[in-house]
Design goal:
148 residues; alpha+beta; single chain
Length: 148
Amino acid sequence: MKKFLIAFAVAAIAVAGAFAQDAVSDAMAAAESAREEVPQSLQGTWYDKKYDCNWVLSVNANATSLAKLVDASTGNVYYTFTKNNVKNFNQEFTVTNGAVITFECPAKNRTYRFVKPISNPDLDIDIYNTVYEERHTATVTFKSVEAK
């Protein structure tokens, strides 16, 4: 009887291992499929209530345009970020983080990081002032898809 129970336990472990291996393979295939669906651009407007302004992002795969900081009440453009006035521009699109855009703006003495998670429409921002060593981090509220 003991031999039967031992043989049964070994068989059960082998079957469980086979199912686990299939589950891992399925998860890896799903992750690869989702990676192909991640957009290669970041377009839209997000509201930063701390400064009553809108971040208008228009980042495409070629990085021909980047972002504008706009007064939410008046529509006055505070600053326009382009390929010509930023450096160390980097963009990546991953299944785990979504869209991640980083760059430095020497004229503003700041570094910028925008993270648009896949899980929600809002945008996480991290702006670091290199002169005063101050950081502004916030989750800004999604307003619209059109970059205005």
